[in-house]
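Hi R.,

As promised, here are both runs. First protein below:
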Amino acid sequence: MTDKELVEMALDARKNAYTPYSKYQVGAALLCDDGTVFTGCNIESASYPCGICGERTAMSKAISEGHIKFTKIAIAGSSEKICTPCGMCRQFMYEFNPNLEVLCSDNAGKFEKHTLADLLSCGFGSSSM
């Protein structure tokens, strides 16, 4: 799977976002070590803390299906600016792969490559306990 293909899957997943409050849609496509891809979108609630980001939706789907080894994730937002994961998502992803490759995209598919270690320096993991 190419980076561009994964970003396209994130852009497609974004279409399912439920965002009646912020109107900001995010899609994610998560590549597992065995080549399986899980997609997700953000889902808002009137009670904001109950919402979930696209990245965590994709990861939750994967984990609930028995996948916990991830190599790459693409994230696509609905604006002209590159969409990067929020702090909560960065920490959540860190739990499973501190060196995860993160493709951050705008609404047209233009993307930047990062590692999670670059996006979340000094992350908190099991070795921190």
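And here is the second one, sequence first, then its structure tokens:
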Amino acid sequence: MIRVLICDGNTREDRASFTEYTGCTPSEHIAGLLLAMDNDIVIEIVFPADPDPVRTLPLHLYDGILFTGSNSHIYDGQPSTARQLDFARKAFASGVPLFGICWGLQLAAAAAGGRVGPNRADYGICETPFAAGIQLTDAGTKHPMHKSRNLRFDEFSFHSDEVIELPQGAVVTARNGKFIQAAEIKFDKSIFWGVQYHPELLGRDQAGYLRESAKSLVADGTFDSLKNVEEIAALIEGYNHELDSPRLNQLCCGVDMTLFEYRPLELINWLQHLVIPRAASDRAIG
């Protein structure tokens, strides 16, 4: 048995909104992916943003702890954010392998002493629907998190904040011209792998994300109009294992669809290289 704890980074209201537009919460989506990878996994989902006490086993009894994406902002001063930072520090103290996607990377970086702030890119607030021109660093080419990744690739993306400064001793494993896109953080007793992009999404999922945030994407200048958001969402929605549309390429300049990967490679590699070995070691000791 492999025991994984998924920490959904969204408030109750945001979880309801994601369910309306995508059919499930981010944590439920990732739970489905993990179960498809290995049916020996037992998954628990918790909501550290909520005011209710988080009820889990002692954290060291899990084989992996994962932090999802979120609509939250590290710097907003909200109690829901403070609760998540506190829980992330407890996770780092557990000695369990950690993984984070988007907000999960930002949360881990901040909890371990790094800095997170609004995106500083010059083309709009939010990097979406794609992160173009991601490249593995020298460290990334050797890192097991990116096993089977091309040296250069494009991925789905959805973030208006970025990791500005990683904690001491952290290693950047991927970046593009705008942002840190992946990193390893060693802090307290745990190793964390995280990505800013969204390797877990297919086209229909990203289309739902766009629609869920359509008004804010227009308000912040990322897109010109709600019509523009819907046009891109509709084009993306129908592509779940290949994505090749001249119109989409025109709308999303700089994205090379031949470099797009539809497998959640970093999640697969975390499971295979850190989580499953820990579970096997625990069974051997037991």
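A quick note on the second one: The first strand starts at residue 2 and ends at 7. Let me know what you think.

Best,
J.
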